[in-house]
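The record is given unchanged here:
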Amino acid sequence: MAGNEISLTSKLSFSQGSETFADTVTTKTQNVATAYVVVGHGEHVSVNVGTAYENVPTADVTLTTSHLIRVRNGDATALLTMGFVHDGNVSNIVGAAELYPGEMFGPIRAIAQAGSKPFWQFKSNVANAKAIVSACDGGAPA
């Protein structure tokens, strides 16, 4: 395996009047956990999101171990809501974030899911809103 196969970069800054905050860019790199034979242990897909909560697509990313996920609101006008199932009951979804056009949720390292229960969910305030989902296996943190 090559080194630094996964890279996470994060920055948050703001300025209003005399108040400013400029965080430095933080980057973490690491190797993937396994040398994969089959291509496809990552997902980067554009999807249409409906007005009811639905599973965030992660393809064949292994969700029973930690995994990395990022969702970007690719719609020009829609508001996306990210949620998660905290107790295995898909009717008990807890809202976690709102994404305005162009905003992102993540990248974050998500905890392992128990069994085949869905974990990350999203919905939109309008039908067929565009979201771009990126996900990959969690790798082997140093």
